[in-house]
Every structure is written in structure tokens, then in C-alpha cells.
Specification:
This protein has 9 helices and no strands. It is mostly helical. The chain has one domain.
């Protein structure tokens, strides 16, 4: 993970006031677009996967999925690396150099310094940003995208197989939205997005995915300062 201070500053600002301002604006803009989309489509809660399923299992399932996604992401990265080296597509040194050069540029998104030294900023990132801006907002978006694709192209995306295809296309789009952080971050976001989409399809509900997404981001933000410090120490 790379850390620098981009000229424009991180997307979530570098102070508590800026973070709250950006968050409020993001929530307002999304709520406006989502409401307009719903008024145009009149999609039901069922179609948007907004039913609370499966009961009280939502939270423990979401937490479990979060752990599973992180483990799966680690395994996928390791397998890709092993295959590339084993097939002599790249050398270990080349792969290490690529990962160092293209590691996620975290300060495009968040201020690591503020995470380290501003407790209010830290906890807002772990709660408001992780569970509302990321978890709730992005899974509402994912559920709406899936519902829209099913409604517009029922032959292509109406079946279970079609929904998994839709989830894959949505995940690719989700990954490209993270390209500002570098290709590795975009790839990882795409993989995580695919798993979250699969969760929505499996449960016909966004809520386990909301919890999984929120937990994934919250734990990432929590360990980020420590991880960057360790990486800089070993360089």
C-alpha cells in the first residue's frame, strides 16, 4: 500500500469537518438519484432485494462473509502469483516490483495521518463511512443495478445464471471505479464486489452484503495505519 499526499487531498478529506461534509453530500446525492430511479421504475422491495433476510442471521452471516471474502481475496492473489511464477510468465523479483509499484494508493481515498492522530476521524471512518457510505449505499446501488438489468433484459439476466452474469458485469464496473487507487486496488475491488453480488443473489437481500461490506471496510481502515507503518519499516 502506498501513502502520499495527493495535491487534491483524499476523497474523504483529512479532517473531521471535511469528512462529515463529504459524507453528507455523498448521501444526499445518492439518495436523490436513487429516489428518482425508484420513482421512474416503481421497483418493489422484493425486486430491489430490500427484504431483511434471513432474520437475525443477517449480522452473523455478514460478519462471517466478511472474513471469508478477505481470506478468499488473499488466496486468489497468492494463487495468481504462484501460477505466474510457476509458468515463468514473470520472475519473483518482477512480481514483487509490480506489487510495490502498483500497490493501492490509499491516500487517494483516506488520510492515514488523520486515522492515526484524530480519534473522531478514525471512528467515523469505521462507522459512518464503512457501514453507511460503503456498506449501505454501495449495496443499494448493487441491488438496484441487478434489479434494473433483470427488468430491462429478462432473457439475459432473469435466470439464476443470468443474475450471476449480471453480478460479474457489475463487479467489473465496480472495479473500474477504483482505478484511481491503482490496478491492484481496482482488481481487488472487483473481486470483493463479485462476492458481495453473489451474496445478494443467494439471499435475495442486500443486508448480509451490507454487513459484510461494512465489516470488510471497517477492519481495513482499522489496520491501515499499522500496516503502512510495518511496510515502511521493512523497506
Amino acid at each position: 500500500m502506498r501513502s502520499h499526499n495527493p495535491a487534491g487531498g483524499p476523497a474523504f478529506s483529512g479532517n473531521t469537518t471535511g469528512l462529515l461534509t463529504v459524507s453528507t453530500l455523498e448521501i444526499f446525492l445518492f439518495a436523490t438519484v436513487f429516489t428518482l430511479g425508484w420513482l421512474a421504475s416503481r421497483a418493489s422491495w422484493e425486486e430491489l432485494s430490500l427484504r431483511w433476510r434471513p432474520g437475525w442471521w443477517v449480522v452473523p452471516l455478514g460478519v462471517s462473509y466478511s472474513v471469508a471474502i478477505r481470506f478468499a481475496l488473499l488466496v486468489i492473489v497468492m494463487v495468481i502469483g504462484v501460477v505466474l511464477v510457476a509458468t515463468r510468465s514473470v520472475t519473483v523479483e518482477t512480481l514483487q516490483g509490480f506489487m510495490e509499484t502498483n500497490s493501492p494508493d490509499v491516500e487517494v481515498l483516506v488520510s492515514v495521518s488523520a486515522l492515526q492522530h484524530n480519534s473522531a476521524y478514525f471512528w467515523l471512518m469505521l462507522t459512518l463511512v464503512s457501514f453507511v457510505l460503503a456498506g449501505l449505499r454501495e449495496e443499494l446501488w448493487r441491488g438496484a443495478m441487478l434489479a434494473g438489468m433483470r427488468a430491462l433484459w429478462p432473457k439475459g439476466f432473469g435466470s439464476l445464471r443470468g443474475q450471476y452474469l449480471a453480478v460479474t458485469l457489475i463487479a467489473i464496473l465496480f472495479g473500474t471505479m477504483h482505478l484511481a487507487m491503482g490496478p491492484v486496488a481496482a482488481g481487488a475491488a472487483g473481486i470483493v464486489g463479485w462476492f458481495l453480488g453473489v451474496i445478494i443473489v443467494l439471499h435475495r437481500s442486500i443486508w448480509p452484503a451490507v454487513i459484510a461490506h461494512g465489516m470488510f471496510d471497517a477492519t481495513t481502515f482499522a489496520i491501515l495505519p499499522w500496516a503502512l507503518e510495518k511496510l515502511q519499516h521493512y523497506r
